Amino acid sequence: MMDGPFAGGCTCCAIRFEIDRIFDVIYCRRNQCRRSSGAPVLVWAQVASDAFRLFDHRNSASSLVRLA
């Protein structure tokens, strides 16, 4: 497990996220994964829902989007 905080978002900054901790990170180099991303490897992380917050472009507490 990796402890954060970590932050990121989309390229246009309309959506931002914060992560408190990452449970697991997976790297895949199979052809199907490489083709879907256009990259030499595909990387993703598993995050517990209570460690993940999603914000809209205003990045304020009132704009927090709750995932059900």
Description:
The protein has 68 residues and is mostly beta strands. It has one domain. The protein contains 1 helix and 6 strands; from the N terminus they run βββαβββ. The protein has one helix at 31-37; strands at residues 2-9, 16-22, 24-28, 42-46, 52-55, 64-65. Strands 1-2-5-6 form a 4-stranded antiparallel sheet, with no helix packed on it. It starts with a strand and ends with a strand.
List key phrases describing it.
68 residues; mainly beta; 4-stranded antiparallel β-sheet; two-stranded antiparallel sheet; 1 helix; 6 strands; 46% strand
Could you outline the blueprint of secondary structure elements for this entry?
Elements: E1 2-9, E2 16-22, E3 24-28, H1 31-37, E4 42-46, E5 52-55, E6 64-65
Antiparallel strand pairs: 1-2, 2-5, 3-4, 5-6
Low-confidence stretches: none
Overall average residue pLDDT: 79
Number of beta-strand segments = 6
Strand order of the largest sheet: 1-2-5-6
Sheet with the most strands, sense and barrel status? 4 strands, antiparallel
Number of helices: 1
**Overall domain count:** 1
Radius of gyration: 14 Å
Q: What global shape is seen? A: flat
Helix content: 10-25%
Q: Briefly note the structural class of the backbone.
A: mainly beta
Strand content: over 45%
